[in-house]
Amino acid sequence: MRQRLAIIAVAAILAGCQMLPPMDTGTRRIEVREVTPETPQEPGRVPRRVAFSEAEYRALPTQGTARLSGQLFYEAPSGRFYGRHETIAIAPVTAYSAEAAEQALAGRAVEPADPRAQAYTHRVRTDGEGRFEASQLPPGDFYVSGSVTLPDGRRSPLILHQVRLRNGQTTRVNLRR
């Protein structure tokens, strides 16, 4: 069940999004390898082209004292809808996750993420007003995403922002679209 929720959360990240412009992180080299899908492709999803890099993920910090807080809501012509009791995903920015974010910006979803990448994604639930808070996060650049259940039962487009977390600091983000 937990793995299924993780897959759903990652799929939500890939469904469509809004993102802040990338933050300047200096020059860094990223190795991108082409991969061939080994499992049947899900309808409506594009195959991944960037392979999961164990080395890139292994180099990520796994512990920290960074905090993230914010609120999830969707602005529609009929009003503002808060993301009540929704899941917020906080995934590190890597070549692998960047591919999914880029596809989402283009309105396409990629295949579900490798379970090894999902292990690095932090998740929190929003309260009844769409507010969320995560603590003990490692420092670094992250994609923060979620979507809102609308009154008619449909889901809003994915809302995604990129943030930089620092140890000992609280970063605030309003996930809104």
UniProtKB/TrEMBL annotation:
Classification of source organism: Bacteria, Pseudomonadati, Pseudomonadota, Gammaproteobacteria, Oceanospirillales
Protein name as catalogued: Carboxypeptidase regulatory-like domain-containing protein
